[in-house]
Amino acid sequence: MSDGRDTQRSALVVALVYAVTGCLWILFSDKVVEWLFSDPDAIIRASMLKGWFYVAATSLLLFFLVEHYLGALHASLRREVDNLLERQRTHELLAAITEHSEDAIFAKDLQGRYRLFNPAASRFLGKPTGEVLGRDERDFFPLEQAAMLREIAARIIASGSIETSEETLDTALGQRTFLATRGPLRDAGQQIIGTFGISRDITASKEARDALLESAVRLRLLVEHSPAALAMFDREMRYLAASNRWLKDFALPAGGIIGRSHYEVFPEIGEDLKELHRRGLAGETLGHEADRFERADGSVLWLRWELRPWLLPDGKIGGIVIFSEDISRRREAERARQQLADDLGATLRAIPDLLFELDADGRYLKVMASHEAHLAAPVDQLLGRTVTDVLPPDAAATMLAALAAASRNGSDYGRTIMLPLAAGPSHFEISVARKPMVSGQGERFIVLSRDITARKLAEDQLRQRNAELERFNRATIGRELDMLEMKKTINALSRELSREPPYPLAFLPDEDGAPEGRR
């Protein structure tokens, strides 16, 4: 239509130029002839020459005008042919792309009928193209899905815009998810004559994405609720995840550190720790059982930590994970336990008693002796052997009886044994206490054996002296009683002779119960 208007315009221009030129020539040429000639014959000859000149000039002018416009027309026709050829090549290229594309490509008219349906779309639908063209979605998809597709097409026609969305459809290959781009289809006059669509099957990638998202969610939950303090960092040492224990141990705000630099959160971190992080990012696995970490506020933590790199799917290092455990309280408890053990050890070394740990069979498990001369045998000969193997029968029987009593009552005290040692017979007092039961172990007992030889000797000597004193007392009391009887006899004779009794025995009762001299 545009080319037709251009042709009419060109013809009109040629006609106008010719008409204007002719009119001007007739008007001015006649006046010039009349001004130059007065003879009629000359005027006739000049008019004839003027006419021939006019024909020649206008023919030449017409020639140049026609040649110009024919050239322009030819150029326009050449451009049109070139455009048609380019459109044909574009159409052929588009047809080849449509034919061999793995994506479903289709076009529909305003009534929703398919006008273009490539082989990929036919494969998903499970029907040849010929059976699809001229029909709409309702013939191939469930009603709910067909209604959704028609609603999208109506929205695109109304808005004239392109939309991209995910669509899940039932196909001949099963339920598939597509990333669909749909837009308005326009004619040469930019009028909407339908819609087009390109749908890419993203089922596998969506499943992989969903699996990755699910894995990421599980990882986040695992990290957040891990009983250990751990944090995950990228290669720039920015937080990707952190457990609640990490936040609690280091008194950090919940959710306020993700994406932040570790060195921003802990400005007190020095170059020594940063170097460890760089080594971890280079692929090393590092750790320490007890490391001192001084916080910016001056508080000190003792940490057991481990640092190891984590890998991306392509095998490259994506960052590091730091596992940390605050062992400050445990370290203090261990120091207190060690101090207690040292104090107890010093106390036990200061005690002269022998200390044994025995099982229920009387087998020596541990021996502690400040004076090994008091042992029935050297320590290396006691361990692993029983009291029956190393003690005299009476002493072994007493020891086993004490263990049995402690098994029943929890403890036993006061039993004594005698051992024939190199220094001579020695007496020992034993005290037994049952240890708390440990799973997988039998009964165990702690036995204290105190050397009471000196005390035994002193007691024997004291008993001997007490016996001698008792014999002396008995002899002395006997003589006193004989003297009292003799004095009582003399006093009785004196009273019979009517004399005053010579011995005052008022402190003694007579045979009637009255004091002597009060009869």
Total DSSP E strands: 15
What is the straight-line distance between the termini? 180 Å
Series of H and E elements? HHEEHHHEEEHEEHHHEEEHEEHHHEEEH
Structural class: alpha+beta
Average pLDDT reading: 81
Strand count, sense and closure of the main sheet?
5 strands, antiparallel
Given the C-alpha coordinates, what overall shape results?
rod-shaped
Radius of gyration, taken over Cα atoms and rounded to an integer in Å = 63 Å
* DSSP helix fraction: 40-55%
Q: Reading side by side through the largest sheet, how are the strands ordered?
A: 2-1-5-4-3
pLDDT under 50 segments (min length 5)? 511-519
Q: Give the strand content.
A: 15-25%
DSSP helical segment count: 14
Question: Top keywords for this entry?
Answer:
14 helices, alpha+beta, rod-shaped, five-stranded antiparallel β-sheet
Could you characterize the architecture of this molecule?
The protein has helices spanning 2-36, 40-100, 119-125, 129-132, 143-159, 203-224, 244-249, 262-265, 271-281, 328-350, 379-382, 387-390, 393-409, 453-496, and strands spanning 104-109, 114-117, 163-171, 174-186, 192-201, 229-234, 239-242, 286-294, 300-311, 317-326, 354-359, 364-368, 411-421, 424-434, 444-451. It has 519 residues and is α+β, with helices and mostly antiparallel strands. The strands form three sheets. The protein has a five-stranded antiparallel beta sheet with strand order 2-1-5-4-3, with helices on both faces. The chain has a five-stranded antiparallel beta sheet with strand order 7-6-10-9-8. Strand 8 (286-294) and strand 9 form a beta hairpin. Helix 1 (2-36) packs antiparallel against helix 2. It is rod-shaped and about 240 Å long. Mean pLDDT is 81; it is low at 511-519.
